[in-house]
Amino acid sequence: MASFDDDLINFEAHGAKPLPDDGAQGYIDHDGAKIWYATYGTGSPVILLHGGLGHSGNWGYQVPMLIESGHCVVLIDSRGHGRSTRDSRPFTYELMASDVLAVMDALNIEKAAVVGWSDGACIALILAMKAPGRIAGVFFFGCNMDPSGTKEIAQGNPILERCWSRHVKDYTQLSTTPDQFKVFAGAIELMMTTQPNYSARDLAEIHAPVTFVHSEHDEFIKPQHVEYLASCIHGSELILLRGVSHFAPLQRPDLFNSALRAFLSRMINSSQVCDGRH
């Protein structure tokens, strides 16, 4: 497949494709934070959870495809990220998972498929553990579930430097605390280096359909760890995306979206339909 933005040069300069203009957005107050969300389209609900230091706009290449495929798309900026605020407590994945449930409650979404990228994937799998009745399935891309799953991060990687540069620009533009990116990034780094810590026994309790997706050149996650995760959850599947890295949704959207479509096609859709226009 032809490359799109493998080196993230376009992403650094312009960000992802802009989100559609016809969605509805708002905030909910939950547990010390204002959580931003947006909804698009009509149909079975799909929640998109972005990665650490990012925001919902990073899903710009996925949202139109999901709308066209007949889904109501729900975007959520994790607390402290993008337009969402946070309090003084340390970040935890469990707290951010509770924010997702609060948004679902506010939008009257009983059950949804959840698509997670990096930190968002960890949040999605925690939701499947902690609130199994609310999660129709998990698309898990590019994350670990215990500290053994991460690689040593190579210094001077231009792709990571470009991604960092984009995160700084977006945080400055979107955040209610635009001058505090370094503090924010330090707090996220602390969470990432100490969490999550889930065992094989914990993972085995997940019964929702899970698709684990790993990129051939992922900069952060060991391939053996993803194989281990898939082995822990009965009935899960493992997909390898060749030629891309941790940033596949931006680098080659068609490749990533193809895997996402396949995941959604194997979901047993709930009877619920949500409408993202109001």
Automatic annotation (TrEMBL):
Regions annotated as coiled coil: none
Record-linked InterPro entries: AB_hydrolase, AB_hydrolase_1, AB_hydrolase_fold
Keyword Coiled coil: no
GO MF annotations, alphabetized: hydrolase activity
Alphabetical UniProt keywords: Hydrolase
Top-level taxon of origin: Bacteria
Pfam families: Abhydrolase_1
Protein name: Alpha/beta fold hydrolase
Gene source species: Glaciimonas soli
Organism lineage string: Bacteria, Pseudomonadati, Pseudomonadota, Betaproteobacteria, Burkholderiales
